[in-house]
Amino acid sequence: MATDTNETKELHGSCLCKGVSYTLSGAVREISHCYCSQCRRTHGLMGSYTRSNWDDVHFTNKKTLQWFRSSDSAERGFCNTCGSSLFWHRLDSGYVAISAGTLDQPTGLKVAGHIYTDDLPDYYSLPDDGMPRYGTTSDGKLDGDLST
Ligand SMILES: [Zn+2]
Predict the structure, then answer these.
(1) In angstroms, how far is the first alpha carbon of the chain from the final one?
(2) Contact yes or no for 89/75 (Cβ under 8 A)
(3) How much distance in Å is there from the Cα of 21 to the middle of ligand 1?
(4) Is 148 contained in some domain?
């Protein structure tokens, strides 16, 4: 069972041009590195995501936020001006995955592991970091899992 961290710390983030900026007011999960082919195409290699309840995401600016329906079950939020990838949202769920790179530093978060390693591109090898690895989804066993 995944556990929440950062119970009380408020986190802030934005895209590159600050057309999208947000505050996370609730608990967030540790970070997962996702190597699925969609994250690869969106992020260049992996998608590094934390996660929050939608109710705890407060936009201070979203004038350039746009959503792309990336699969039957999910959509991805990005900035239509600077191109930053910000969010992954499973449709009809009450949570959203947030691209960790858009968070202001320091985050206080840690990497919890690697998911969708079956899709690892041939030009990259996983670090020998001792963290859990899953060929596809972690089925909720990993903090920050995108698919639970
Ligand atoms: Zn932007």
Answers:
(1) 11
(2) yes
(3) 9
(4) no
Centre of ligand 1 from the C-alpha of residue 106, in Å: 20
Q: What confidence tens digit (pLDDT) does each residue in 63-112 have?
A: 999 999 999 999 999 999 999 999 999 998 999 999 999 999 999 999 99
Report how far residue 75's alpha carbon sits from residue 27's, in angstroms, rounded to the nearest whole number.
22
CB 115 within 8 A of CB 33: yes
What is the tally of structural domains in the chain? Answer: 1
Instruction: State in Å: Cα 6 to ligand 1 middle.
Output: 26
pLDDT at 128 over 70: yes
CA of 59 to the centre of ligand 1 (A): 13
CATH code where residue 51 lies: 2.170.150.70
Q: What pTM value is reported for the model?
A: 0.88
pLDDT tens digit sequence for 6-59: 455 799 999 999 999 999 999 999 999 999 999 999 999 999 999 999 999 999
Boundaries of domain holding 56:
11-119
Rounded to the nearest angstrom, the distance between the alpha carbon of 85 and the centre of ligand 1 is 9
CA of 64 to the centre of ligand 1 (A): 7
